[in-house]
Amino acid sequence: MILVTGGAGFIGANFVLDWLAQSDEAVINLDKLTYAGNLENLASLQGDPRQVFVRGDIGDAALVGRLLAKHRPRAVVNFAAESHVDRSIHGPEDFIQTNIVGTFHLLEAVRAYWSGLADTEKNSFRFLHVSTDEVYGSLAKDDPAFSETHRYEPNSPYSASKAASDHLVRAYHHTYGLPVLTTNCSNNYGPYHFPEKLIPLMIVNALAGKPLPVYGDGQQVRDWLYVRDHCSAIRSVLAKGRLGEVYNVGGWNEKANLDIVHTICTLLDELRPRADGKSYREQIAFVTDRPGHDRRYAIDARKIERELGWKPAETFDTGIRKTVQWYLDNQGWVSHVQSGDYRNWVEKNYAGRA
Ligand code: NAD
Ligand code: TYD
């Protein structure tokens, strides 16, 4: 079996669902269930003995040690993290605790377990760390996309904490020989995406008749990948990646934020037209920019394509249509995640913006 951390969050839940749709290898799912963790994402696995869910913290080395000793996984895939840039600006401490200190304790527990394995199990064991392109900082308009050797230049507390965790993972390979792999992926979108991030926020606000808050001039560029393509990339790296290597994952889909919002409005105009016949674009509102806002991210994905033969299955057009349709079909999920905590966050992040 494999141990997945953060498997009740957006990408982790998609990964667990895809993994068990394709194989019978069981998953231990360790998740703290922060505001971003949601067992409803895994509802289709209820009663399925192939998933063992454990509520707990990656920073609890004793708990992780017990889970490793009991279940003896052949791999750990680490998704658990605080993941939202705006929250890291309002309160960086949780990011330091989970992304840096938590990853450190997780690595220590995994190292102790791995050291005690017999040679064959030791050689085949893998620790895969899921990271982000944001560690590389911001690109100017005509700069080449981020390759794996691009220097680290994180600009937000979130990206700085992820950068620190990447460095720890690297150091555990070089110092202790821990068999690690790291993936740095671009922005994901798709089902179960928590509506604090750009794409799901715009869909749910549009449907609720609320403003669509575009930061600054809306010309910041992100490189978007459908979440299930990220999951297939992680499976490829886990199966075939070279030890100690970093793989950048992206879909060659650079888009300006305003273009994304326009695309969502156009799809909703077609799939769920407004009662007054006007376009959802009427709801767009330009608001005060995010402090330290990175202008552009872009991933050079040639290494994973060349070495592992990985390619995304979705284009942006097919992926965004599926995503908008998923939110239309899962309004119950949306209303459940918009709890009191969610409303407090929206108030905190948007009320002070002109
Ligand atoms: P998310 O915020 O939706 O989910 C994070 C999950 O981790 C939640 O289920 C949460 O409960 C859990 N968690 C948080 N702290 C924990 C702790 N201390 N111990 C155990 N579990 C804990 O995040 P996501 O968007 O699914 O991202 C998953 C990973 O992928 C993160 O490491 C993130 O940095 C990385 N990543 C995300 C994106 C993206 O676009 N979302 C892109 C590239 C990389
Ligand atoms: P986000 O989904 O938070 O991802 P990240 O900051 O990790 O790239 O934001 C994506 C882009 O959308 C980013 O440039 C900030 C912008 N954005 C808005 O313009 N308005 C919003 O309300 C949000 C949440 C994001």
From TrEMBL:
Its cofactor is NAD(+). This is dTDP-glucose 4,6-dehydratase. One of its GO terms (molecular function) is dTDP-glucose 4,6-dehydratase activity. It comes from the Bacteria. The keyword NAD applies. Keywords: Lyase, NAD. Its EC number is 4.2.1.46. Gene3D superfamilies: NAD(P)-binding Rossmann-like Domain, UDP-galactose 4-epimerase, domain 1. Belongs to the NAD(P)-dependent epimerase/dehydratase family. dTDP-glucose dehydratase subfamily. Residues 3-323 form the NAD(P)-binding domain. InterPro entries: dTDP_Gluc_deHydtase (IPR005888), NAD(P)-bd_dom (IPR016040), NAD(P)-bd_dom_sf (IPR036291), Sc_DH/Rdtase_CS (IPR020904). The keyword Lipoprotein does not apply. It catalyses: dTDP-alpha-D-glucose = dTDP-4-dehydro-6-deoxy-alpha-D-glucose + H2O. GO terms for biological process: nucleotide-sugar metabolic process. It comes from Candidatus Gallionella acididurans.
